[in-house]
UniProtKB/TrEMBL annotation:
<dbReference type="GO" id="GO:0005737">
    <property type="term" value="C:cytoplasm"/>
</dbReference>
<protein>
    <submittedName>
        <fullName>Engulfment and cell motility protein 1 isoform X3</fullName>
    </submittedName>
</protein>
<dbReference type="Pfam" id="PF16457">
    <property type="entry name" value="PH_12"/>
</dbReference>
<dbReference type="InterPro" id="IPR001849">
    <property type="entry name" value="PH_domain"/>
</dbReference>
<dbReference type="Pfam" id="PF04727">
    <property type="entry name" value="ELMO_CED12"/>
</dbReference>
<dbReference type="GO" id="GO:0048870">
    <property type="term" value="P:cell motility"/>
</dbReference>
<dbReference type="InterPro" id="IPR011989">
    <property type="entry name" value="ARM-like"/>
</dbReference>
<dbReference type="InterPro" id="IPR016024">
    <property type="entry name" value="ARM-type_fold"/>
</dbReference>
<dbReference type="InterPro" id="IPR050868">
    <property type="entry name" value="ELMO_domain-containing"/>
</dbReference>
<dbReference type="GO" id="GO:0006915">
    <property type="term" value="P:apoptotic process"/>
</dbReference>
<keyword id="KW-0581">Phagocytosis</keyword>
<dbReference type="GO" id="GO:0005886">
    <property type="term" value="C:plasma membrane"/>
</dbReference>
<keyword id="KW-0729">SH3-binding</keyword>
<keyword id="KW-0472">Membrane</keyword>
<dbReference type="GO" id="GO:0017124">
    <property type="term" value="F:SH3 domain binding"/>
</dbReference>
<dbReference type="InterPro" id="IPR006816">
    <property type="entry name" value="ELMO_dom"/>
</dbReference>
<comment type="function">
    <text>Involved in cytoskeletal rearrangements required for phagocytosis of apoptotic cells and cell motility. Acts in association with DOCK1 and CRK. Was initially proposed to be required in complex with DOCK1 to activate Rac Rho small GTPases. May enhance the guanine nucleotide exchange factor (GEF) activity of DOCK1.</text>
</comment>
Length: 726
């Protein structure tokens, strides 16, 4: 007979004694189990003891997490969280430097456990650490010259413990004094500082800025972009990542009126070129966290355009109208007459003619064209930039199209407005950065006016594609669709520079796009004749079963998921995989992202598939209903799913990407006997069905398949023609 479900067999260690094998009854109170263990080793005062998981985490067993104990687990009897907190609280105040260092090291490790953290915080431990940072380090700085490594370690472990304790979200960030902020900022502002101390200090500043608007103002007064720049010029990618994260946090939390000012300072300090030369083009490969921070900086930089994008042009504003006059002057300079020559009516007629040549919809008052938002005034800004900085190309496009009389002229004004709107959609101008995205484009870090240059390349592409398509005004939307496809395909190749992007576009001519479309159409060819449709219906269940098996096999391999917290870089990972017999989900926490599969026996928790009631996705997931900026992110919502089991218990997931999201939601639905409805399943079905159809019809190439099956011939009058083998 299998053992009762509530009985768990474990080994329990105690320093200096042989481990004990015990059966733990999960129905018993935890205090009773600890008392029984203490009595086995003749230990009194059992309330001063607790059980820990005997692994690298050393997490305490509590009534809340005791169900995580599995058969074969190794536990350790140790002092209770309260007693440990009291001891460490005393030890870190020791007058002995070595004892203090050892105590802070132990505190940094113990603080990862929320049970211990709660006890230490209850003893006012956070205040003690901040006091040590504010004043205690002054005393050690005198010893720094002779004990520099020791001083660095002391401060490093103090700040590490502080970061770990704050990461649990028990204490509000608003409680910290200006003196503490000044001290942390001073470690960042120093030219020579211990790497570990600098990392922790940058991490603390980032958290302060992101978690409190009040602290943002205090931090912004203490550190400047100029003081952060030197940290980007080193070779330590972790320090560079933390530094860009602080800059992003300051950018994100800055009031709208200050963001343009901050952007101006970043340009003055040449932040873009420093990142380009020291990070993007360095010999060190860019890791995921750095890629994310560069993506965030890219998004925040483009979001500076939102104000212009959402500003309508005032047709009565003379300064704005002068920009349109400037566009006309640059394009038709040779033809322009002096403003004071001719009658007013004649000049108006000439302006109307020129505005028509420039491709505006409203020839009389082109300012009306810029009242649409988006793109608003941003389109006019782009046009003026193109006219001034790429004057030859601008004049050529305008004159080339204004001289055509065959209705194939490309309207520059209308095209520029629609193109600007399209580019804003592609680059998601105005949207907050995604928590999971790493999609930065190196080419946008190669120019101070990268969006305007991007527009200049794309408007020339649009004109070229228009000519290749021999389009007329009726084909405007078709041309824009082709141009969008050309831009998107070129961007997916992640060009390193704007010139490289331009050359990629040269290879994506309209003819090439047609070939690509034709190829894709052939791969997805859908025959409509009745025999083919009947064959498709017959094959479909086989293909669906194949997809189902693939999904279940992927669940058996497992996936590493990231636990999203308010502190992104302190990533905590967990792994989940399906047992080979498809009956149990095994899962458990990991110290770091694994290389390859994680074996079942290293995953402590399990959930029987039979207990699963439903799979919930998106905003209906419990962990997406929590408050907080990270939870409101659209892309995170699209990757979230939860498994409902037992009495309203949930196992919450956030997939690393859309592909894994589809695999897991499909696989879990398949386990529950439900339909697999993801986009990935539809795509796989189309691809596999198309391939299978083509294979089966290979021998029928160039043969006309009749709509109806051929008639069955009449039976012969006799069967004398049958050969008798006997």
């Amino acid at each position: 007979m299998p053992p009762p479900a509530d009985i768990v067999k474990v080994a329990i260690e105690w320093p200096g004694a042989f481990p004990k094998l015990m059966e733990i009854d999960q129905k018993k109170p935890l205090s009773a189990i600890i008392k029984e263990v203490c009595e086995g080793w003749s230990l009194g005062n059992n309330e001063n003891f607790a059980l820990q998981i005997a692994d690298a985490t050393n997490f305490y067993i509590t009534e809340k997490n005791r169900n995580d104990i599995k058969n074969g687990s190794i536990l350790r009897l140790t002092t209770s969280p309260y007693q440990t907190a009291v001891q460490l609280h005393e030890r870190i105040q020791s007058s002995s430097m070595d004892a203090k260092l050892e105590a802070l090291k132990d505190l940094a490790n113990a603080s990862r456990d929320i049970t211990f953290a709660q006890e230490f915080i209850n003893l006012d431990g956070i205040s003690l650490l901040t006091q040590m940072v504010e004043s205690g380090t002054e005393r050690y700085q005198k010893l720094q010259k002779i004990m520099k490594p020791c001083f660095g370690d002391l401060l490093s472990f103090t700040l590490t413990a502080f970061v770990e304790l704050m990461d649990h979200g028990i204490v509000s960030w608003d409680t910290f004094s200006v003196a503490f902020i000044k001290k942390i900022a001073s470690y960042v502002n120093k030219s020579a500082m211990d790497t570990a101390v600098l990392q922790r200090s940058l991490a603390i500043l980032e958290s302060m800025v992101l978690n409190s608007q009040d602290l943002y103002h205090k931090v912004a007064q203490e550190i400047t972009i100029g003081q952060l720049i030197p940290h980007l010029q080193g070779t330590d990618q972790d320090i560079q990542t933390y530094t860009i994260a602080v800059i992003n946090a300051l950018f994100l939390k800055a009031p709208e009126e200050k963001r343009q000012e901050m952007a101006h300072i970043l340009a003055q300090k040449q932040l873009r070129s420093i990142i380009l030369s020291n990070v993007i083009r360095s010999t060190t490969a860019i890791n995921d966290e750095m890629a994310h921070q560069l993506y965030v900086l890219q998004v925040l930089t483009f979001n500076l355009l939102e104000d212009r994008m959402m500003t309508k042009m005032d047709p009565q504003d003379q300064a704005q109208r002068d920009i349109i006059f400037e566009l006309r002057r640059i394009a038709f300079d040779a033809e322009c007459e002096p403003n004071n020559s001719g009658s007013i009516e004649k000049r108006k007629s000439m302006y109307t003619r020129d505005y028509k040549k420039l491709g505006f919809i409203n020839h009389v008052n082109p300012a009306v064209d810029f009242t649409q938002i988006p793109p608003g005034m941003l389109a006019l800004d782009n046009m003026l930039y193109f006219a001034r900085h790429h004057q030859d190309a601008y004049v050529r496009i305008v004159l080339e199209n204004s001289s055509r009389e065959d209705k194939h002229e490309c309207p520059f004004g209308r095209s520029s407005i629609e193109l600007t709107k399209m580019l804003c959609e592609i680059l998601k101008v105005g949207e907050l950065p995604s928590e999971n995205c790493h999609d930065f484009h190196p080419m946008f870090f190669t120019h101070d006016r990268s969006f305007a240059e991007f527009f200049c390349i794309c408007i020339q592409l649009l004109n070229k594609t228009w000519k290749e398509m021999r389009a007329t005004s009726e084909d405007f939307n078709k041309v824009m669709q082709v141009v969008r496809e050309q831009i998107m395909r070129a961007l997916t190749l992640k060009p390193n520079s704007l010139d490289q992007f331009k050359s990629r576009l040269q290879n994506l001519s309209y003819t090439e796009i047609l070939k690509i479309r034709q190829s894709e159409r052939m791969n997805q060819e859908d025959f409509q004749s009745r025999p083919i449709l009947e064959l498709r219906e017959k094959i479909q269940p086989e293909i669906m079963e194949l997809i189902k098996q693939q999904r279940l096999n992927r669940l058996c391999e497992g996936t590493c998921f990231r636990k999203i917290s308010s502190r992104r870089r302190q990533d905590k990972f967990w792994y989940c995989r399906l047992s080979p017999n498809h009956k149990v989900l095994h899962y458990g926490d990991l110290e770091e992202s694994p290389q390859g599969e994680v074996p079942h026996d290293s995953l402590q928790d399990k959930l029987p598939v039979a207990d699963i009631k439903a799979v919930i996705t998106g905003k209906d997931c419990p962990h997406m209903k929590e408050k907080g900026a990270l939870k409101q992110n659209k892309e995170v919502l699209e990757l979230a799913f939860s498994v409902l089991y037992e009495s309203d218990e949930y196992l919450n997931f956030i997939a690393p990407d859309k592909h894994e999201y589809c695999v897991w939601t499909d696989g879990l639905n398949a386990l529950l006997g439900k339909e697999m409805t993801s986009d990935y399943t539809k795509s796989d079905m189309d691809t596999l069905l198309s391939m299978e159809m083509k294979l089966r019809l290979l021998d029928l190439e160039n043969i006309q398949i009749p709509e109806a099956p051929p008639p069955i011939p009449k039976e012969p009058s006799n069967y004398d023609f049958v050969y008798d083998c006997n």
